[in-house]
Amino acid sequence: MNARALSARPYNFSAGPAAIPAEVLSQAAAEMLDWHGSGMSVMEMSHRGKEFDSIHNQALADLRELLAVPANFRILFMQGGGLAENAIVPLNLAGRTSGVGQGGGVMDYVVTGSWSQKSAKEARRYGEVRVAASGETEGFTRVPDPAGWQLSAKASYVHLCSNETIHGVEYHQLPDLKALGSDAPLVVDFSSHAASRPVDWSRVGLAYGGAQKNLGPAGLTLVIVREDLLGHALPVCPSAFNYQTVAENNSMFNTPPTYAIYIAGLVFQWLKKQGGIQAVEARNIAKARLLYDFIDGSQLYVNKVAKDNRSRMNVPFFLRDEARNTAFLDGAKAAGLLQLKGHKSVGGMRASIYNAMPLKGVQALVDYMRDFEKTQA
Ligand SMILES: *Cc1c(COP(=O)(O)O)cnc(C)c1O
Questions:
Q1: Of 213, 261, 268, which is closest to residue 82 (Cα–Cα)?
Q2: pTM, rounded to two decimals
Q3: Does residue 223 share a domain with residue 124?
Q4: How far is the CA of 227 from the centre of ligand 1 (A)?
Q5: In a shared domain, residues 169 and 264
Q6: Which of 213, 270, 287, 341 is catalytic?
Q7: What's the pLDDT at 103?
Q8: Which region is the signal sequence (predicted)?
């Protein structure tokens, strides 16, 4: 595909599966029938052959470098997505304090939106879930102040979702659990902002996420886990979901999602070419500021999330006159701005502006929103 065709693609604001850099899609297309002279598509290779081995190891090394993952953390490429991790995390960690073979212990959950709410609900099958704090009474418009969290003594872990994709609520700093009086490891669902910013690993025990928001295609689930958290799985934990088993087999206990790993690997190389995570974060900050500043200054649009907790990746917004929603979406589509409809549980609009969305795309959205507001006034 030539450069003109690439730049003529519409801007895609999908929350997930989401836009992938056009350069990556273009390279994958060029390599589809014959990867590096192997005579095979990546889809057709043995996961144990030397060709895929090089793809896998390169992806692991690039991700470790990009996210500055310390040596005492393992990177696992799994399947099942964020929702499967809602079960896989407690299957592996709920028994950490109660002792292996004893069944699940106490797990603390911080609920800040739909995704962490689902996580807490699923974990109840595996032990005693305690909700340490919830933003529900405030309509999930802010992260409850960590100073007020009710953390349990001897919890097996504390779980939070660091970017709520549906409600547009993001932690701009992860809590320091030690300072809050908890010795438990922090487990983070970072599905929808992984690789959008650096991670403070000194505050994290385990981070997981589905790839289809910010890392690549659906089918790949990323788990980054501190080594001391391996080996605590409940006896009922399926072998293919046992972090220790997966780690010991370098994510090859079962066939990993090879093509999704390949595409994610191309995305990691693209991120390095962009200047790495710090440069990408600076761009994400600029993109989010452009959109939020416009919304805050307009008469027609509104975002209800507390300013300190606004997501840089997912920007939900409402038209003050909801009767104009359909006209807004139809006009956006005609202007080459796709998938702006909000999640059905929240309504309104949502612009997801992940790493692959250029500043120009956000500018095009703002220009459209301004024109729409004027012409309809
Ligand atoms: C999309 C998403 C999920 C669910 O991912 P699946 O791959 O559909 O299981 C979980 N958590 C967050 C924060 C998400 O954005």
A1: 213
A2: 0.96
A3: yes
A4: 24
A5: yes
A6: 213
A7: 65
A8: none
